[in-house]
Design a protein that fits this description.
single chain; 345 residues; alpha+beta; Structural Genomics Hypothetical 15.5 Kd Protein In mrcA-pckA Intergenic Region, Chain A; 23% helix
Length: 345
């Protein structure tokens, strides 16, 4: 029987890279900690001992001591998920479900798949635990951990590849909602600027505007102009890493709560080092997470070819942020097409 625990283990097994090795004849009789330190030199022997004692390393599916003597054919597994992980918001909403795909709305504090410090605390793990009958879901596209909204998964290889082709060919219509600081230059405008690795940033994955980078195109529509802030819709024509966040920041419209591309990237460095922000820093940030929401996604169904439009109602934190600014969030808290516009063009 394929229960929640086995489904969750299957998910982690798919995403934890280089997590398994079998002992070769030349290593027969070697201590486990010494073997790991010599073969996998990116960690010291002391660090490997800590992982072994924490239960992250097993030999033949059993927890052992660092002094365990290895024998030819022993199977060593690296299982990172016993360690403590950052807290997440586990709330999800099922938007669509059939035999070919699943569409869900995720919160603004959950990564999609295992990466970095997150293994069990991921959307994939949540869905595998709560819905083991869905089988092994396959990732089609990604959202940043702090971006809320629509994520779709394939339920079989054929559907996943069909959907992935639509994303690669830019056939998918995507609409995001964002609360930004500043004043947009006009009611509608286009940001067409290439992206590449951010120069001078201390954040490894940070992106910046680079003239020799890859092309990126975002259409922006102002939904409401406030005093020093705006409520905007962003429609990315390309799907580059952090595209909307960097494009809006380059236009003088950083997204409220963005720890990387907002007021100060030191906020993100504090986060990854588990350092709390001061009250003054939190006030400057504006929101605990970036106010970006994947609101609407239009695809062709991988089996029928028919148009499928999914909408993720605005989450509570962004709705509250609008209320505090005197804007009624109700039009974006219901399922349906974007208010005041259609999906053409």
């Amino acid at each position: 029987m394929h229960g929640p625990d086995s489904a969750a283990r299957d998910v982690l097994r798919l995403w934890v890279k280089k997590g398994h090795t079998r002992i070769e004849p030349s290593a027969d009789g070697t201590r486990l900690d010494r073997y790991l330190a010599c073969r996998f030199t990116y960690r010291s022997r002391t660090q490997w001992r800590k992982l072994i004692r924490a239960g992250c390393i097993t030999v033949n599916d059993a927890c052992v001591r660092p002094s365990r003597v290895l024998r030819q054919g022993d199977a060593i597994n690296y299982i990172p998920f016993p360690r403590e992980e950052p807290p997440i918001d586990r709330r999800t909403q099922i938007l669509f479900l059939d035999a070919h795909l699943v569409g869900v709305a995720k919160s603004g504090n959950v990564p999609i798949h295992p990466s970095g410090r997150y293994f069990r605390h991921t959307l994939l793990h949540i869905l595998a635990t709560e819905h083991p009958e869905w089988g092994n879901l396959r990732v089609v596209h990604r959202l940043d951990r702090e971006t809320s909204g629509i994520v779709i998964f394939g339920r079989d290889r054929e559907a996943t590849e069909h959907l992935a082709v639509q994303f690669r060919r830019r056939e998918v219509q995507k609409r995001y909602l964002a609360l930004v600081e500043g004043r947009p230059p006009k009611a509608r405008f286009v940001i067409d600027r290439p992206l590449g690795k951010a120069k001078g940033s201390r954040i490894r994955k940070a992106v910046g505007i680079q003239e020799d980078g890859i092309s990126a195109h975002t259409d922006v529509r102002v939904l409401h102009q406030g005093d020093g802030w705006a409520w905007v819709e962003a429609r990315p024509r390309t799907g580059r890493l952090h595209q909307i966040r960097v494009h809006l920041q380059s236009a003088g419209l950083p997204i409220l709560g963005d720890k990387v591309y907002g007021r100060d990237e030191r906020f993100f460095l504090k986060f990854i080092n588990n350092e709390p922000l001061t009250p003054e820093e939190s006030a400057l940030l504006g929101l605990p997470r970036q106010a970006l929401h994947a609101y609407q996604l239009v695809i062709r169904h991988p089996a029928s070819g028919e148009r499928l439009s999914l909408t993720a109602p605005l989450p509570e934190d962004m709705a509250q942020a609008l209320l505090e600014r005197g804007l009624d969030p109700a039009p974006w808290q219901q399922r349906g097409d974007m208010p005041g516009d259609d999906m053409t063009g």
